[in-house]
Amino acid sequence: MTGKRFAAGLFALLLGAVAGAAEAVPPPAPQTDELAPPPPPPGKPDRKERGFGPFVWRAFSRLTEQQRLEMLKLQSSDPEQFRQKMRELGEALRKEDMARFAELRKAVESYRASKDEAERAVLKKTITEHVREDYMERLEDNKRQLEEMKRRTKFLEGELAKREANADQIIKVRVESILKGELPEPGKHPPKRKP
After folding, report:
1. pTM, full prediction
2. pLDDT at position 23
3. Cβ distance 54 to 145 under 8 Å?
4. At what angle do helices 65-77 and 79-113 cross, to 10 degrees?
């Protein structure tokens, strides 16, 4: 029973560290002059339905730059397929993590059951290596997520600066379109003007 409690406690500790370190981060914007990806639909769908969670964001952060750009294009062109692919990536990562945790739990149970000090030393070294590898992997995930947030922040700051610089012109165009009868509902973006 004590081994199960220890394993459950270790799992809770690892889960808490992961959840705290890998909070959901919005997907980064493309590094081009394109507009940012569309916001999620109004309302608050069930978290599982949306498919966004720590595993999904960790999986996204592990994609190459080219893969991320392709996924962001897919998000704009086919949001449902994007969500499905991201759910699949997140689920694969979750299964991988659960398998690694099962290995760790088995090693911990063997360590606690063993009376041989030499065997315990080998198992402790294995457990330490496993925890170090997992921790360093999460640290790298966090670094990549931070870099994505920095890129996203830079992009959004540029967009905000453009909007501030063009505020008078944008307001004038919107007033003209409203007076012509193009009145967007609250929370909806007005239609884009064709150049």
Report:
1. 0.54
2. 42
3. no
4. 130
